[in-house]
Every structure is written in C-alpha cells, then in structure tokens.
C-alpha cells in the first residue's frame, strides 16, 4: 500500500511532555508501525500546502490524519482535496483529536463534538468481532493512560461500531467507527493522545495496520460530477 501520514507537528516539536513519549515525533512513530511492506510518506503543517496536492492524493491508497490544536491552520482547499479523494476511493484513517479536523467534518456533515477530560484509564471492547479491523484483537484490552472522550459524539450513524471505550470516570465512547463515503472508506479511532504512549501499544499497532488494509481502495474513480452519457441502445422502445 501507499500510505500518507499527516501530523500537524505542533506539540511534538515544542512540548517536553510530548517529546518524552514520541522523541522522533508522532508521524514517524506511526510510520514505523505501518511501514512493513508498504510505501509510507509523512507530511506536516510545516510543508507547503500541508504537503498535500491532488497529484499526491491520487498516488495515495490510505491517508492517516493526526491533529489536535491547529485544525484551523489547514487550508480549506486542502480539506476539500482530501474529501474529494475519499469520495473517489482513497481510504482515510482519522486518529484521536482528528475528529475536529476539517476533512473529517466535511465528510461527516456534523459538528463532530464530544466530551473530553485529561487523563483516564480506558478499557476498549471489540463490539464487531468479525470486522477486518478487529482481526487479531482481544475481546477487550486496557490503556493505562488516555484522554477521556465521552458521548454524546455528534457523528452520523456509523456503518460499524468496531470498538467501544469505557473510562474510569464512568464514561463510554464509540471509540472505533467506520463509514463509507462515495467510493472511499473512513475509520475514526479515538485513542492517541499526544502525552500517552498509545501508539507504542502492540494491540493499537495491530488495529492501525488492520485499518490501513481495510481502508485501502477497492476501486478509484471520479464521482464528483453527474455524467450525461449517450444511450447504450437505440431504436424504438
């Protein structure tokens, strides 16, 4: 697969607490998880146009998107390119605070808001054990340190709820959900707070690899415009 990873690359450059967990930055940690057998490239807000063009997306099978505090810095035109690429068949995996990212909100058509609180233990349950993203994942596992995300999560009704999260404060959350948009597939996955070692967890890594395989295109095409084809047959009806 050809995988592109976007990381806004703000806090992992400037905050010691984040650097302590991801000394080589979040996008490179994700690349290390996904690179086996795949072509992986990374881009950030530091790159011109966020490192994203139509030509690059045309050569991308799955785009991973991690962001937190700088959603507003992503140009609207870039968000629209991502949306259009998904509609045309590219896969999109949105991680953690990416629920507020412009491309995800464009594809969902809702506010994508939720409840949150710093620091909590999370137990994640598999709620769709036959789903490809859950392959090789135990029926439940624990993250000792994560940011609490709680319902209500303002998203459209998912195609599948693959994972549900329960937090030590008593909250629950649809932690892993899938959508089909146009020819493309979207997976939103809640774990991945910047000061938590989530992406070092072996079960999380399995889920990320599964998500890439699931989201990879089965076909690509341009469905952005209504076509006006000639009739297939001629003659009297």
Question: Which tags fit this structure?
Answer:
237 residues, alpha/beta, 9-stranded mixed sheet, 9 strands, 24% helix, 29% strand, globular
Protein described:
With 237 residues, the chain is of the alpha/beta class. 24% of the residues lie in helices and 29% in strands. The chain contains 7 helices and 9 strands, in the order βαααβαβαβαβββββα. The protein has a 9-stranded mixed sheet with strand order 2-1-3-4-9-8-7-5-6. Strand 7 and strand 8 (172-181) form a beta hairpin. Helix 5 packs across helix 6 (102-108). The radius of gyration is 18 Å and the shape is globular. The termini are far apart. The mean pLDDT is 96.
Major β-sheet annotation = 9 strands, mixed
Could you say which structural class the secondary elements and strand pairing correspond to? alpha/beta
Shape: globular
Rg value? 18 Å
Estimate what percentage of residues fall within beta strands. Answer: 25-35%
- Unreliable stretches covering 5 or more consecutive residues: none
* Quaternary structure: single chain
Number of strands: 9
User: Mean pLDDT score, rounded?
Assistant: 96
Q: What share of the residues lie within helices?
A: 10-25%
Write the topology of this structure.
Blueprint: E1 2-7, H1 11-14, H2 16-21, H3 26-34, E2 39-44, H4 54-58, E3 62-66, H5 76-87, E4 91-95, H6 102-108, E5 115-126, E6 140-150, E7 160-167, E8 172-181, E9 184-189, H7 202-215
Parallel strand pairs: 1-2, 1-3, 3-4, 4-9
Antiparallel strand pairs: 5-6, 5-7, 7-8, 8-9
């Amino acid at each position: 697969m050809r995988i592109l990873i976007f990381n806004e690359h703000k806090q992992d450059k400037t905050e010691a607490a984040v650097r302590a967990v991801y000394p080589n930055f979040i996008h490179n940690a994700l690349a290390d998880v996904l690179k086996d057998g795949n072509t992986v490239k990374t881009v950030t807000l530091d790159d011109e146009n966020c490192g994203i063009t139509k030509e690059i997306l045309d050569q991308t099978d799955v785009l991973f998107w991690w962001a937190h505090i700088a959603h507003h810095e992503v140009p609207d035109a870039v968000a629209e390119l991502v949306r259009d690429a998904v509609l045309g068949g590219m896969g999109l995996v949105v991680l953690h605070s990416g629920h507020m990212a412009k491309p995800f909100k464009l594809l969902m058509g809702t506010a994508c808001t939720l409840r949150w609180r710093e620091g909590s233990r999370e137990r994640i349950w598999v709620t769709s054990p036959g789903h490809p993203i859950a392959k090789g994942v135990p029926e439940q596992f624990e993250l000792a340190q994560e940011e609490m995300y709680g319902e209500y999560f303002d998203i459209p009704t998912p195609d599948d709820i693959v994972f549900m999260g329960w937090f030590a404060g008593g909250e629950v959350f649809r932690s892993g959900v899938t959508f089909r948009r146009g020819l493309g597939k979207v997976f939103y996955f809640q774990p991945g707070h910047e000061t938590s070692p989530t992406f070092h967890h072996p079960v999380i890594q399995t889920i990320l690899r599964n998500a890439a395989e699931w989201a990879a295109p089965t076909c690509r095409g341009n469905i952005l415009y209504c076509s006006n084809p000639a009739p297939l047959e001629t003659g009297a009806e």
